[in-house]
Amino acid sequence: MLKLGYKASAEQFGPNELLDFSCLAEDVGFDSVFVSDHFQPWKHTDGHAPSALAWLGALGARTRRVVIGTSVLTPTFRYHPSVIAQVFGTLGAMFPGRIVLGVGTGESLNEVPSSGIKWPGPKERRDRLREAIALINKLWTGDRVSFEGQFYRTENATIYDKPRDKVPVWVAASGPLAAAMAGQIAEGFICTSGKNPQLYIDLTGKVREGLARRGRNEDSLEKMIEVKVSFDTDRSRAMEDTRHWAALALSPEEKVGVEDPIEMERLAAALPLERAASRWIVSSDPEEQLRQIRPYVELGFNHLLFHAPGPDQARFLKLYAESVLPLLRDKFG
User: Fold this and answer.
1) Domain for residue 19, yes or no?
2) Which residue of 140, 274, 283, 303 sits 20 to 30 Å from the alpha carbon of 320, by its own alpha carbon?
3) Catalytic status, residue 38
């Protein structure tokens, strides 16, 4: 069954405002709320970066039915995997059946300034993530866990408050090797929209390869995509709203090694509006939203997480729930 969720932008809003938006998302009919986990935002001016770990506890207590989790968190640098195992064990025990741990290999913007580490290459980051997931799963299933890996160690470690049912781990990927890893070891796969269409064909293909390598059924894996949508009855307003997130339109080459939100903001501000909006489905027409979202559903994504860029998130949530969500459910079930 298709699930329709709300992306809580912790880089754009403070914790209390974001909590109100997320509760409204549940009230108007969204199925899930996933939050980003940044130490620093993309933008220094009016930027925010509340702790996802603390915030998810409040979200779970204020909501009743939505699935909640991270999209995504990095359990490999700022956090030791055992800390994440304890936090999500507690969340899973408190809000059974509603918690997802979404993880990725990380961004230097968040990890380097907060820890002073030298940022490693992609292979080490993937290896760290694979090992971290293995350790987290061991801590959720065993007691007195002594683990000695390439990167992490524990000695007689026990998570005393475990969830009754396993918290699913979903792996985010923007490249083929991480996508294959998601198929091999995770319960879900996460990616983001607005890039070259061929990328999504390649990524979902690699996920299937990973599943096949482990003899796993494709139905066992949740496939979530963060769909960047700017929707309003006034198309010019929808277009203008994308300016806040112009940094997403920067190429990897333009932002490589940029770990200062002030510098990231400067680079993003130099982009013309048309390019700032290039990652977003911008429209005032619900049918146009449906048309541009359809290819992701046809590729097998069964969980659409909608990320809206504008400052008036309450307006977006009400408009989208009234005009677009019923169309999606009617067409795609």
Assistant:
1) yes
2) 274
3) yes
Q: Check if 107 is active-site.
A: yes
Of 41, 50, 96, 52, the residue nearest 74 (C-alpha)? 52
Domain count, the chain: 1
Asked, for residue 221, whether it belongs to a domain, the answer is yes
Which tens digit of pLDDT belongs to each residue from 210-228? 999 999 998 889 999 999 9
Is position 252 within any domain? no
Catalytic residue among 107, 226, 240, 265: 107
Domain that holds residue 300: 3-234+285-332
pLDDT in tens, 171-193: 999 999 999 999 999 999 999 99
Report pLDDT digits (tens) over 112-144.
878 889 989 999 999 999 999 999 999 999 999
DSSP letter assigned to residue 155: E
Q: What is the pTM of this model?
A: 0.94
